Amino acid sequence: MTDAARPDDGADAGEDMSPSTQAVWAGEGEYLVQAATQVPVVYSCAYGYPDVDSWLDVALGRTPGHIYSRNTNPTMRAFEEKTRILEGAAAATSFATGMAAVSNTLFALLSPGDRVVSVKDTYGGTSKLFLEFLPRFGVQAELCDTDDHEQIEAAIAEGCAMVYLESPTNPTLKVLDIARLAAAGHEAGAVVVADNTFATPINQNPLALGADLVLHSATKFLGGHADVLGGVVCGSPELVETIYHYREITGATLDPMAAYLLIRSMKTLALRVRQQNESALRIAGWLQEQPAVGVVNYPGLESHPHHDIARRQMRGYGGVLSFALGGGFEAVKRVLPRLRLAHRAANLGAVETIAGPPATTSHVECTPEERASMGIPEGLIRYSVGIEDADDLIADLAQALDVA
After folding, report:
1. Out of 70, 274, 315, 334, which one is annotated catalytic?
2. Options 3.40.50.12780, 3.30.1330.60, 3.40.640.10, 3.40.190.170; CATH of 3-266
3. Is 123 a catalytic residue?
4. pTM of this prediction?
5. How many CB atoms lie within 10 A of CB 231?
6. Which of 209, 240, 223, 206 is nearest to 91 (CA)?
7. In the annotation, is 70 catalytic?
8. 152-190 per-position pLDDT tens digit
9. N or C end of the chain: which has fewer CB within 10 A?
10. Is 195 a catalytic residue?
11. Active-site residue, from 114, 177, 195, 396
């Protein structure tokens, strides 16, 4: 096993503690040097050894260490360890972006002739992999109605190599019963992968619900400050080793400075997510009372069709919601410019509130017809709640909705 998939020797650094404490302390002890209290940014392309035997031991994975930073790097490893412990995994490996984590996982584990079962409203880039890229390599993807667990289970029972789940989904905030679908996947002999970006390990742990792998776009809530790109996959050493090997050859490596920024940001992850959970629930409740707003998508609302599932498998409902305006895309174009406390940008999970339509954010790669087939109306606004005061955000939404 290479160092990329090696469980941390200092595994006593928070594995039995709360996520709030793990976010601050976990995974760092081995990488602190010369009495520093923060993990350093290690900028070195290669790592030297005094003799060939010790070099060979590290190269072959017999002893811990690093050979070349395209493969592993100390700062990168500290970020992987922190995320691994938060997700309750045995191993983790990181990537340059969230989509690198998704694509490397799919291409590392799927082969020509394989079949993957997923749902229609995954993130737009993931959907493009299923519909455009995987078929070119002889991999069939069946995308089921996200609301229909029986249909998903029937598709899995027909045979598949992978079940790919995203919960809550982006941007419709639908919730999948991870335990139920993981059991169906394992009965079919499939690897079960769950994208946990929206929930974060503070609100949900898919591995504890039966998934084999959990992945994140670390760019979003893990980073939390809209200033760093990254991705990570956690799971068993065997599966993570396979994905790591694909990544070390294809080269979608996390940069050391990005890894440092993620470690720094994750120290406040629990604080940020708790605030975002609380504010998002208040805002969603307020929005569903507004005459200009149609449907409000937020799993914390009792009116949400999957609220019971969310209540069972999540500790909090997340910082993202979406809502549809009755006036369609023209209403979106009138309302968004009036928001004073929201960036109009293609990102989410940051300390600042961010708002935008799927046409320019999550599903910019898709046509209006493709978005409609996924149940995404053109009047939908995805609203990622920041850590601002909820009363100020509600007041800002109120004045913006006046034109709708």
Report:
1. 70
2. 3.40.640.10
3. yes
4. 0.94
5. 28
6. 240
7. yes
8. 999 999 999 999 999 999 999 999 999 999 999 999 999
9. N
10. yes
11. 195
